[in-house]
Write a structure and sequence with these properties.
Layout lengths: L20 H22 L7 E4 L2 E4 L2 H11 L3 E3 L12 E5 L1
Antiparallel strand pairs: 1-2, 2-4, 3-4
């Protein structure tokens, strides 16, 4: 195949559609990263809850247990506590 002839001086040549692809990808990546960062800062962290079966849940702290039951608007009932107070440390509970 013979080489392509040069365009006449002053003539406009077609611009390749892939000319700015690298910039577009970098911009899209930066926007996606910014959206994840803003979304991660705005969202609350989910409470750590383990489903133990038969409606019994487990959480490492009282605050996380209360936060989980608050999602449903249900009162919390601690299973391990003989007194009315919440036990210290890991606990089992129900959201009644």
């Amino acid at each position: 195949m013979s080489p392509r002839p040069a365009a006449p001086k002053g003539a406009r040549t077609a611009v390749s559609p892939t000319r700015h692809t690298g910039r577009r990808c970098a911009l899209a990546g930066a926007l996606a990263l910014a959206a994840l960062l803003v979304g991660g800062c705005a969202a609350r962290s989910a409470p750590r809850v383990v489903f133990l079966g038969d409606g019994v849940f487990g959480s490492p702290t009282t605050q996380e247990a209360e936060a989980y039951c608050r999602n449903f608007g249900a009162p919390i009932r601690f299973i391990d506590a003989d007194t009315g107070r919440a036990p210290a440390g890991p606990l089992r509970y129900r959201c009644d």
